[in-house]
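Example 3.2
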Amino acid sequence: FQRHLSFCGDFACLGVLLTLLRTTLSLSTPPQYHDVIHRTRDGAEKVPSQDCRFNSRGDVVVNRRSCLVGGMSVASSLVGVASLPADVYARERDVDVGGGTDITQTVLRKNVDAIYPASMVGVWDCARIVTAVEGDEGQAKIAWRCLGGTGGSAFANERYRTKFVTAPPNTKQYAQYAFEGKSLEGVVLDRGFDMQERTGCSKLQWNVETPDILVYEREVGSTLELAVVRRRVELPSDQGFGMDELIKISTSSSGGLLLFGGDSSLQRAIQVKRRYRRAFDDQGNRIVQGLEIVKTFRVLDGVAGTEFPTSTTKSQIVLTQSSPPPS
């Protein structure tokens, strides 16, 4: 009886080994492909041109290109039946890290700038004082310089002229705001005049009708582009006014100047928050007081880690009107 059991066990093991060997040989043998033959109603045979085949193991093989073409045809027919609006396809790239922002895509109302009170039209004297720098001081210094910071030392006090102009005709509907029961039309910052007065640069490109892009040459052979990709605007009211912008900074320089951290191919992301309120100075002159907070972020593959800033710079701004508004 024991011999019989031993013989049965050996036979079972041998069967398993033969099955494994047959499976291995089957997998190592390149499969032979055969066309699937279809028969028409009149009995004739029809062979599709490599669209659908099966191999010697019985696996069905479908031509990838045919599937793609067929899928696109179906999608085209569906879109033809019910066309979707174009903005449905303008999706942001997926971001793995919470709080990340894709700075390669612009999400804002095109050519609509931040709005300032109508009474601010004209030229103003601007005084800036950096009050605090937190985090990576090197990154904070680069951001300060890119935004126009000047002086003999980093974060030096600044004084220069700035100007506010009427909003362009194509965006005046967004410049409307209510103040003390009246409907008024706000003004916008002349960013080109502001940057030129602050830095003294000779080459600059900016247009009030396309305010989201500013390009200027800070030093010879070094061009800097500031592109606003996100913007929130607080319209003027009794409580004040302001804006919150995320700016993508792109550089083009020969030799990688120190201004841009030694790497001319690097893109940077800077958040600029400004909030203003109307006030009066000691002599009773009308002034505008502001607080600016600038944050820098790491950028990887076009995504800014806006959840964790690398530096924060706080500044106080005082605007004093140097020329009366036009009548």
